[in-house]
Amino acid sequence: MTSTPTFPPGTSAVSPVPKRGVTPPGDAATPYDRLPRTLRWAWWRPLLGLGVFAAAAILGSTLVAAAVMIAMVAAGELGTSPEAIEGLLDRMRELDATDSVVLVLALGSIAIWLVAVWLGLLAAGMKPLGHVSSVALRLRWGWLGLCTVVAVVTLAANFAISFGLSAVMGEEVAAPQWTPWDRLWLPLLVVILLVPFQAAAEEYVFRGIFVQALGSWLPRRAWARVIVWVLPTAAFVFSHGYGLWGLLDVTVFALTAMWVTLRTGGLEAAIALHVVNNVTVFGLLASGALGSTVNGSSEGSLAGVLITAIVSLVFAWVVDALATRRGIARTSAWPERASAVALTVPLPRPVAYYEGRVDAVARAS
Questions:
Q1: Which of these, 99, 124, 171, 255, has the minimum number of CB atoms within 10 Å of its CB?
Q2: 321: nearest Cα among 146, 184, 191
Q3: Distance in angstroms (rounded) separating the CA atoms of residues 336 and 330
Q4: Nearest 5°: phi and psi at 332?
């Protein structure tokens, strides 16, 4: 019995939905950015998911800010006058890494996006939710841990090279203004507790649901790939209020995070790099080792961007090599589904030609 073809090619009229622990019906090699196509696919599902995420993120960030402000008012640390509120907003714009309240506001209001991501996916019926983590339909914790080790080593090299070159070239380096321990321990605790969730939330948004929405909407074409890279990267970069060199540095980071995500089929490497980077930066700022505790006080330089680019390339290369050596899945074996119920295309009935007549020959089923 011959199989019945379907349209679009590569889809199935009866395609099972991916589930953890269930063997896929073949090896489709679906890339990370097109994983939503392996689910109960419809064009409106990613759109609904993004819409619910945006609403939940705004609401969640507002609730975090309100909770912190209510606690401050109750503790007598914040007045209710417009001037007092404006003063708090000024503190947030400055973002002093020793200001624990501001850290909780800044980091907590982004960390809550993780919940918003899950709510968006649930509302859109895009299950299993783990498809946004990796092609394995889950966060691969062992792989995340290994990538974290690589990130620690490469970022340590980054800072060592930066400080070393500054000393060799005789550049003026701000003298450390060490923060006393009694003012340092609480900001460090906030950083250690909240940064992993803040950094992961940004990855789930900018390299996760945003990338997968675009990847599932657009065709498998080179120009579509460019859009998948450019739009989320631009959104991430311009969400940071830095100067020129700072934005270029963030761009290098964003491109590296995008590459390792698509290359390794998951967010683990990008999360590891983001977490280690932010913990290190906030930790150094809070300690006063950089001469200032204010985020973005350094304007950066071309040399700094070049060093970041080189170290990022090393990180990406090592991660890629380790993924190959450890057999990390880069694509999903689950096939893509049609945009609606796959259209069954019937085979034409064969015909026999003789004596100038055309007679249909019944096909045996």
A1: 171
A2: 146
A3: 16
A4: -100, 140
